[in-house]
Amino acid sequence: MEEARLIVVLVSLPDADKACSLARDLVEKRLAACANVLEGVRSFYRWKGEICQDPEVLLLIKTRQESLESLVQRVRSVHPYELPEILALDVSGGLAEYMNWVREETS
Q1: 57 - beta bridge partners?
Q2: What pLDDT score does 1 carry?
Q3: Residue 64 forms beta bridges with which residues?
Q4: Which residues 6+ apart lie within 8 Å of 77 measured at CB?
Q5: Taking the mean position of all CA atoms in its chain, how far away is CA 69?
Q6: What is the pLDDT of residue 52?
Q7: pLDDT of residue 102
Q8: Average pLDDT per 10 consecutive residues for the chain, totaling 107 residues
Q9: DSSP annotation string for the chain
């Protein structure tokens, strides 16, 4: 049987409280094995015709590809932004024991 593909999902949030709350929620629901909260992010983007600059907090979420749809639904249901950043990146390799742990924790 083929091993589950792993992904890292990036989600930006407006503050650490919201990021920590979402990180805990995703791990509790086994939609993520781990979520790192990275404070001090400054985002530049165009929104509704204007260039914006805002402080944000970035979540790095480790999970399985097959969990992505449920994870996206959960993030969208609690996220404060009209259009949340949710980007999934394929994991091409890593420490086998860690990758197995991610699979186990998201099963």
Answers
A1: 13
A2: 57
A3: 6
A4: none
A5: 12
A6: 97
A7: 97
A8: 89 98 98 98 96 98 98 97 97 96 95
A9: -PPPPEEEEEEEESSHHHHHHHHHHHHHTTS-SEEEEEEEEEEEEEETTEEEEEEEEEEEEEEEGGGHHHHHHHHHHH--SSS--EEEEE-----HHHHHHHHHHT-
